[in-house]
Design brief:
Layout: H1 7-29, H2 46-60, H3 66-73, E1 78-83, H4 91-100, E2 103-108, H5 116-130, E3 135-139, H6 149-159, E4 163-171, H7 192-200, E5 206-211, H8 216-227, E6 233-235, H9 244-253, E7 257-262, H10 263-268, H11 280-285, E8 290-293, H12 303-317, H13 320-336, H14 342-355, H15 366-378
The protein binds zinc ion (ZN).
């Protein structure tokens, strides 16, 4: 038997070895075991980053300042999901505050369920056109007792608005919302049932103001949640004048209900009871259903104080994974689940014909389409 290697077999063996090495390198490079720095892809893990920064803060022992909290939680890209600064175009005076306090995105609208909201809706739209990475426009300018509200809603969602809000679904005690011309008497009033069905076809959420958050209005909310299981309902400032037990009961029963947690109310408003930590257990129980907001600082010292409160809640949560969901991921999941609309796609097709650009229309989200269109408008 010859000990010389058959050249054909040796070649084949070499080829097999090369293939194994290449496959191993590809697999390794996508894992944390890859020993070399990947140029341009070295993204810091925000959760680890926050864990490190928070543990340093804790070692210091004192109550952290807002600046320290902003620095610790900055990698989470905090989203304010309930903001009225389209009213009086107040948002332009907040730009520096948001920058300094690392508010990554703002769900922006203005007046609530009254004719003047038509104007503030267009302010939130134009803010979004200028800064599509910073604002998520919602709208509230329609009379839910009028069938034509369905056309307004369809047109606005087609145009690229991401949701309806803040909508007065019931109000008895709020000195502002109880007086608005287009408020509903309860969450099933007027054309609201038809509205819930329409917005489900766009995956667009509705942010409701309901006060009191108990009794008949909540009974009707539960009727709406059950009759419209594909509609996403966000209970505005759900922690205001409400107990953790009641929030627990509603979230347990209704998977299509989300909680807007107005941090400033529980942290700084004396009527909030002064014990924000009592809500942390239910946040842990429903990690995908809570989001944070400022409500533009309604009823407290300032919007800045309401931002401070959001960061204090993230600190109280004491769990960077959960904090990331509540600060950012839960709202962005609702936004990213919205597909590009027919109106957006046909506008983009027109753009593409002019520019020769190609787009992947099949999987395009409303967020991506909105950014393409806003950027094109600026050119
Ligand atoms: Zn509000």
């Amino acid at each position: 038997m010859s000990t010389r290697l058959n050249p054909k077999k040796a070649g084949l063996a070499l080829l097999v070895i090369c293939c194994i090495v290449i496959i191993a390198m590809v697999l390794l490079s996508s894992t944390r075991y890859w020993p070399f720095e990947r140029a341009g892809t070295t993204e810091a893990d925000p959760i680890k980053e926050v864990a490190d920064r928070v543990s340093k803060l804790k070692q210091a022992g004192d109550t952290p300042t807002l600046e320290q909290l902003v620095d610790a939680f900055q990698p989470l890209e905090l989203v304010d999901i309930h903001n009225h600064d389209a009213s009086g175009a107040r948002y332009s005076s907040m730009l520096n505050v948001w920058k300094k306090d690392y508010i990554d995105k703002v769900v922006l609208f203005g007046d609530v369920s009254e004719p003047s909201a038509i104007g503030t809706d267009s302010v939130s739209w134009s803010a979004y056109q200028k800064s599509p990475d910073q604002f998520l426009p919602f709208f509230s300018g329609f009379d839910l007792h009028d069938k034509r509200s369905l056309d307004v809603i369809r047109n606005n969602l087609e145009q690229g608005y991401f949701g309806l809000g803040e909508i007065a679904a019931a109000s008895t005690y709020s000195p502002v919302v109880s007086k608005v011309a287009w408020k509903a008497s309860d969450p099933m009033d007027g054309f609201l049932p038809e509205i819930y069905d329409l917005i489900a076809t766009y995956n667009a959420p509705i942010l409701l103001h309901i006060d009191p958050p108990s009794g008949y209005p909540v009974l009707k909310l539960e009727e709406a949640l059950e009759a419209h299981p594909n509609t996403i309902f966000i209970f505005g400032h759900m922690n205001a004048y409400n107990s953790p037990e009641e929030i627990d009961r509603l979230l347990a029963k209704h998977p299509n209900l989300y909680a807007d947690f107005f941090a400033g109310f529980s942290v700084y408003n004396p009527e909030g009871g002064g014990h924000p930590e009592t809500f942390i257990t239910i946040m842990k129980k429903y990690p995908d259903r809570f989001m944070l907001s400022t409500d533009s600082g309604y009823g407290i010292e300032s919007e800045q104080q309401a931002i401070d409160a959001m960061y204090r809640i993230l600190y109280l949560i004491d769990n960077p994974e959960l904090a990331k969901k509540i600060a950012h991921d839960n709202m962005m999941a609702l936004i990213q689940a919205q597909p590009a609309t027919k109106t957006q796609l046909s506008s983009i097709q027109k753009l593409a014909t002019d520019s020769g650009e190609t787009y992947d229309y099949g999987k395009m989200t409303k967020l991506e389409a909105g950014k393409i269109l806003a950027d094109a408008n600026k050119e």
